[in-house]
Design a protein that fits this description.
GO molecular function: guanyl-nucleotide exchange factor activity
CATH topology of the largest domain: Dbl Homology Domain, Chain A
Number of strands: 7
Number of domains: 2
CATH superfamily of the largest domain: Dbl homology (DH) domain
Pfam families: RhoGEF
CATH class of the largest domain: Mainly Alpha
Distance between the termini: 109 Å
Shape: elongated
Strand content: 5-15%
Helix content: 55-70%
Order of helices and strands: HHHHHHHHHHEEEEEEE
InterPro entries: DBL_dom_sf, DH_dom, FYVE_RhoGEF_PH, PH-like_dom_sf
Structural class: alpha+beta
CATH architecture of the largest domain: Up-down Bundle
Radius of gyration: 31 Å
Protein name: RGRF2 factor
Length: 325
Amino acid sequence: VQSFMRGWLCRRKWKTIVQDYICSPHAESMRKRNQIVFNMVEAESEYVHQLYVLVNCFLRPLRMAASSKKPPISHDDVSSIFLNSETIMFLHEIFHQGLKARIANWPTLILADLFDILLPMLNIYQEFVRNHQYSLQVLANCKQNRDFDKLLKQYEANPACEGRMLETFLTYPMFQIPRYIITLHELLAHTPHEHVERKSLEFAKSKLEELSRVMHDEVSDTENIRKNLAIERTIVEGCDILLDTSQTFIRQGSLIQVPSVERGKLSKVRLGSLSLKKEGERQCFLFTKHFLICTRSSGGKLHLLKTGGVLSLIECTLIEETDAS
């Protein structure tokens, strides 16, 4: 009887302890943490599938097409468009398998060592992100070839693509690092300070944030250089100042140059000659250091003004005319 009573009292007390813990803030925090991990596994599974489609429905078929008798695309262009895509897929397949192995040991979830495996390989991502704009540019140029465009549409009609274009699949890796940063931030919000992997998760988050900043700066610099070169190529005479990498493009547009008339005669205009009857439309480009003024010919080509076509903003003074007349 005493043994029975002791067992009953113990079970009742244990039930109270368990119920109290279930309702405690710590248990609620752990439930949220587990849910974040489960969502992370699902998102990683979806991402691996996207990479699988990119590699198996586009990269490998195009690589075979480049080796055909009449290739619609060259091997160099394939490499430029899909730089590191296959390696990134293999990397995330390993990462995904590791996540599933950790889930198999639930409720014990140790994730920090998985990120330790991932971190040294992130330079592969850095190269992919740096190359992204160029890869889309190469793809756009390749689409000018009818044979390639026709072949690409056949690949995009594959049911595995679910109606998505190649450009969409090439964009997915661009958002993966920021997604990991958000996930780690949420995990740390529900990880106690005395938790065994708190420091490792904080280290992984700091490394990913550092990489994200570097990639953002590199992408901005690369896009700016390409924009400057694109403008430089549209000017018939060329423009050496646009070859300065510190020259940042701000905006472009057209301005109307109004002829200055004094006593029925045209006054001398610094920005090229104009007739009395006609206003002149100028195509203008504003940069951080210079202001370019161009005329557009009937053929659509741009020509720098012979006089005052390149204005140095460092030497300029802005004067606001308050007189309404």
